[in-house]
Structure formats: structure tokens, C-alpha cells
Amino acid sequence: MFQTKKKIIVASGSPRRQQFFSNLGISFEVLNVQKNELYQGQKKNIPARGILGAYDKEERPSLEESPEKYAKRLAMKKGLEALNYLGILQKGAAGFFSVFENIVTQQELSFSFEKFSLSSFLQSSEKSIIVTADTIVCLDKEILGKPKSEQEALLMLQKLRGKTHAVITAVSFVDCAENACYVFSDKTEVTFMPWADDILQSYVKTGESLDKAGAYGISGLGSFLASSVQGNLDTVIGLPVAKCVEFLLWNKAIAVL
Fold first, then answer.
1. Set 134, 175, 186, 234: catalytic member
2. Torsion angle, alpha carbons of 77, 184, 217, 58, to 10
3. What sign for the dihedral angle of Cα 169, 105, 93, 59?
4. Where are the alpha helices (DSSP H) in 24-66?
5. Which residue from 161, 140, 252 is spatially nearest to 215, judged by alpha carbons?
6. Would you state the pLDDT for residue 77?
7. Would you state the pLDDT for residue 241?
8. With a cut of 70, which residues of the chain have pLDDT below it?
9. Is 134 a catalytic residue?
10. Residue 36 has what pLDDT?
11. What is the pTM of this model?
12. Separation CA 256–CA 3 (nearest Å)
């Protein structure tokens, strides 16, 4: 369906994000920092989850940071970690993000994205694209990350039941040849059924909650929790596929066969 023109590196341990690329026939490699390897993008070689996930646990939004900007920052920091690991980052994180406030919004696709130059920080002429993403769940102004225990997972689900919350996925593309980073976010509204505690407890005991932002997986056992989804379901699962494909075509990283 698509022909890959630039080397695409998916710096994510999420099997769901990797599967999106596999389903479209896009050739890619998976950056697995923990195993010190690059994997070919084939189902049989997809590594275990957990790569580049430190920021999910360590980072918190600043007081004046919107959920969208927070998600973008996390996605970009994962890109930074990948660049640093590959040995093509000349300066540290402070310099990398000093230009974050000076990004100019582009409107060259059906959605807006932000772009900034990395020419002062990268040392690479390789034609490769590094893809990173981050998904957050936001109830009003409260950001719900991944629960650390079953008890915390149950508390999150109790907060969400019977209410509408936002799921935001941000995606960062680092184009090493252009020494540029592109980032965008997509938001979907999800409404939960007002499930009773015993049903929520039963779901938490499956163990699925502990690996998911907001303590649920809409593409797995947790699909029954939601009564409606307003927006892109792929965004809730973890990657707004249509926008990613549109960007990669625009960037000439892929082409239609």
C-alpha cells in the first residue's frame, strides 16, 4: 500500500503503536533502549513494552501548561531520549527545549502542527524519521496517568464513570536529515457508563489497568467501559493514524504504491 522512502524508527515499546505501522505495510524499525537493539518492524520481532517510558512516571505538568502542550512535551522528550541514545544529539535537554516557546504553527496539512529547527543540536545527515508519541487522559483539568496500583486504578475509574473525559495523543517526528522536529496533538472525547464498583473492581483485577493512562484500555477488555466516543478512536488507542500517514506523505517519508 505504501512504499517507505526514509528510514522510519518507532521509538516506542507500545505494541499497539507498532501494529498501526505494520497494518499499513510501512517498513520501520523499533528502537529498544533497554535491549540496546534496533528491531525490524515485523510482528514476530516486536519487543516487550516499556521502552522510553521513564517520562510517563517522572514528568508532571507545570502550573501554566495545558494538557495538549504537556502531551507534546512528553512526546518530544521521548524523541530527545532516542536522539541521545543514538549519539546524534550535540547538546542536552535544556538547550533542546529552549526553543520550544519559539515554535511557529504550520497549516500545511488538514491539521496544524508545530515545527522547530534542531540544526544546533543534531549531528546527522541520515535520512531517517524518529517517531515518538504520548497519550494522556484528562478529566476537567486533572491529568490521569498510569496507575501505580490496583487501588489507584480503581480510584481513577471511579472518577471517570458517568462522565466525559478527554484523551490526548501527541506525536513527535524528528527528521534527522532536515534537522527538524514536527509535533502535533489530537483530542478525542470519551464518555463512560456509570458502572458500579463491583464491575470496576472486576475489570481492575484483570491487570489491564496498570499499563494504561487513565487505568483502562479501550481496545482491550476495557472497551465496555465507554458508552460513546466523539472523535478519532485511534487517538484513544494511542496513535492518530490518519494524521500520521498524512504527515509522512507530506514529508515524503512514504509514498503510495
1. 134
2. 20
3. negative
4. 54-58
5. 161
6. 86
7. 95
8. 32-63, 91-106
9. yes
10. 44
11. 0.86
12. 6
